[in-house]
């Protein structure tokens, strides 16, 4: 597949709801152990919250939503931000953060994710950013394999635990 990659205008953000729902369903399946801490939100509520975050992030000058399309059909999208992050390693004072990457379940395994990651990396490189952080939910081993093939290595291991009891 040879998708066209575009930057999405914030006024078009609602076209992402369907794929966000797929990602939520994927995460619910792959990380079922997390329901011990609390139930998964409904797709509608989850999208309402995520939509708000996307619109807020798009106020940042360097944030963007990249979409992959085949004609009028949305195949996938990536959300990327650039954040200040001076730290112990000399990889620059800013890092890219891949906030979302999802490909339509009907279009997976055909290079769409790879095309989106390539476009994100080119965009970050154009802003002088040297590294990109990605958070992958525990259990999403297919995505880990995908990112490792793109050159990602282990960074932080994030844990979550209940506060009471
Ligand atoms: C992970 C994802 C973005 C990769 O995009 P893609 O277009 O399918 O990826 P590509 O075709 O460029 O590469 C294929 C790789 O994607 C991964 N993959 C995940 N689910 C897949 C599926 N249902 N079919 C095929 N490949 C899949 C595999 O790592 C696959 O590599 P493999 O051949 O070693 O199994 C996409 O599969 C997806 O949206 N998965 C569900 C949501 C998700 O996990 N997002 C990442 C959250 S951090």
Care to describe what's here?
The chain has 165 residues and is of the alpha+beta class. The protein has one domain (4-149): Aminopeptidase (3-Layer(aba) Sandwich). Helix content is 32%, strand content 22%. Strands 1-2-3-4-5 form a 5-stranded mixed β-sheet, with helices on both faces. Helix 1 crosses helix 2 (43-57). It starts with a strand and ends in a 16-residue tail after the last helix. The mean pLDDT is 97. Coenzyme A (COA) binds at residues 23, 26, 101-103, 108-114, 136, 140, 142-143, 145-146. This is GNAT family N-acetyltransferase. Residues 26-165 form the N-acetyltransferase domain. Keywords: Acyltransferase, Transferase. Pfam families: Acetyltransf_1 (PF00583).
CATH topological fold name: Aminopeptidase
Helix fraction bin: 25-40%
Radius of gyration: 16 Å
Bound ligands:
coenzyme A
Highest CATH level, the class? Alpha Beta
- Enumerate the spans where pLDDT stays under 50 for 5 or more consecutive residues: none
| Discrete helix count | 4
Distance between the termini: 50 Å
Averaged pLDDT, please?
Answer: 97
The CATH superfamily is Gcn5-related N-acetyltransferase (GNAT)
Task: Report a brief summary of the structure.
32% of the residues lie in helices and 22% in strands.
């Amino acid at each position: 597949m040879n998708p066209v990659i575009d930057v999405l205008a914030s006024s078009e953000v609602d076209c992402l709801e369907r794929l966000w729902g797929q990602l939520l369903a994927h995460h619910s399946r792959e990380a079922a152990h997390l329901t011990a801490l609390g139930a998964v939100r409904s797709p509608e509520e989850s999208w309402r919250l995520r939509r708000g975050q996307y619109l807020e992030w798009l106020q940042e000058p360097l944030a963007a939503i990249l979409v992959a399309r085949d004609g009028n059909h949305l195949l996938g999208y990536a959300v990327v931000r650039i954040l200040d992050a001076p730290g112990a390693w000399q990889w620059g004072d800013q890092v890219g953060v891949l906030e979302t990457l999802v490909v339509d379940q009907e279009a997976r395994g055909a290079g769409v994710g790879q095309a989106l990651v390539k476009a994100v990396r080119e965009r970050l490189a154009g802003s002088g950013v040297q590294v990109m952080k990605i958070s992958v939910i525990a259990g999403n081993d297919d995505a880990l394999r995908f990112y490792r093939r793109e050159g990602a290595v282990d960074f932080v291991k994030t844990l979550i635990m209940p506060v009471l009891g």
